[in-house]
Amino acid sequence: MTASLHRPLPGRARRTHVTATRALLLVLALAMAPGAFAAETTAVRPLGASGLDRASVDRVLVLDPNRISADEVRDVLAHAPAPRIIALQGSVAVVTMEPFAEFLIAMGYPADRLANPRDGALSYGSFGSSATLAGTLAWHYERDGMMPMLIGHSQGGMLALKTLHELAGAFASAIPVWNPLTDTAEPRTTLVDPLTGRERPVIGLRVAYAAALATGALPRVLLGQWTMLPRLRKVPDTVEEFTGFTIPWDPIAGTIGSGEPYAATGSAVVRNVVLPASYSHVGLPRTGHLAADPATRAWIDSWSPDAAPAPLPDGAVADTTNLVHAAELWYSIKKHWCREAQRLLRAHALSS
After folding, report:
1. Terminal CA-to-CA distance of the chain, rounded, Å?
2. Structural domain boundaries of the chain?
3. What architecture (CATH level 2) is domain 49-351?
4. β-strand 269-274 against 239-246: which pairing, if any?
5. Looking at the predicted structure, is the pLDDT value of residue 57 above 90?
6. pLDDT tens digits for range 104-138
7. 42 burial class (0-12, 13-18, 19+ CB within 10 angstroms)?
8. Using alpha carbons only, what angle is made at residue 325 by residues 319 and 329, rounded to the nearest 5 degrees?
9. pLDDT band for position 52 (cuts 50, 70, 90)
10. What is the pLDDT of residues 18-31, one digit of tens each?
């Protein structure tokens, strides 16, 4: 039987991902969000069913994905369709990706696109099956018209990469579609592509964006994850753009120096980012404070890989720890949010 993405290993302590207070706030946010939980229980959504009028669609289509301002996030993208983001935590149960998800929500990403549709959790476990996760991506794509993004911390980065290799056919010739609401495989290995209306296999689906934070080889050895050792730094064509983050001399990841860089096996765009050595492996998801301080938030909003980073404004008092990957990830997430929304809306226009 295929292991569930959401089911912890026997005997492994399970941490509640969302406290009672946060859970209540999240439920309220989801209830007010368009296309929340109820939408996930329906059949395939009509292509481009976003409720946008013509003027709103035009505002999305003229955006430059490489230069999305804070105002454009708030006034334009926030009203457009958004891909689901699956934030995969590491192997230590008490260190989740919930703080990072809360950072994205504070920066303007829709809360319902970060929440697990099964239980509302903002962080996904990383001890599940890559085939299950690949099938889950297909299920969401068929309904949303946008492939989810994958952001993994430590072992979560390994699972993200393994899922990309899974989609490339590295481990099996066919992958069942996986329903995350019932946590079961569906009796099919194909889906109806929402952008073309044609049936296609799960194998070969392409994720728009994925990232791995402090994912090292040493834990793969210790956990017996042998199949990923030769693939851990190889990025297949089943992702359009990938960012790998490394902390130099990270003892938990087993990184020597700045580590072996990630490299594309084909056409994927791969970016390697070496983080400050002062960053903590287990503390990387802690980014919420950066969205709360106006100075660091403005710095993140204006950051671009094509320009030299601006100095922090005088008088910034916030803790700037984790600022580098927070800015990198928010830039890439905005970019692919915009691209995927534009792709969906253009496909809808062509089919109308």
Report:
1. 42
2. 49-351
3. 3-Layer(aba) Sandwich (3.40)
4. parallel
5. yes
6. 999 999 999 999 999 999 999 988 899 999 999 99
7. exposed
8. 125
9. confident
10. 333 343 334 333 33
Tokens of residue 10, six digits: 């026997």
Packing angle, helices 294-302 and 323-351, rounded to 10: 50
The two tokens of residue 82 are 């958004």
How big is the chain, counted in residues? 352
263: which strand partners? 234
pLDDT in tens, 151-210: 999 999 999 999 999 999 999 999 999 999 999 999 999 999 999 999 999 999 999 999
Q: Which 3-state string (H, E, C) describes the chain? A: CCCCCCCCCCCCCCCCCCCHHHHHHHHHHHHHCCCCHHHHCCCCCCCCCCCCCHHHHHHHHCCCCCCCCHHHHHHCHHHCCCCCEEEECCCCCCCCCHHHHHHHHHHCCCHHHCCCCCCCCCCECCCCCHHHHHHHHHHHHHHHCCCCEEEEECHHHHHHHHHHHHHCCCCCCCCCCEECCCCEECCCCEEECCCCCCEEECCCCCEEEEEEECCCCHHHHHCCCHHHHHHCCEECCCEEEEEEEECCCCCCCCCCCCCCCCEECCCCEEEEEECCCCCCCCCCCCCHHHHHCHHHHHHHHHCCCCCCCCCCCCCCCCCCCCHHHHHHHHHHHHHHHHHHHHHHHHHHHHHC
pTM of the model as a whole: 0.84
Amino acid at 189: T
| Confidence grade of residue 49 (pLDDT, cut at 50, 70, 90) | very low
Share of the chain above pLDDT 90, in %: 69
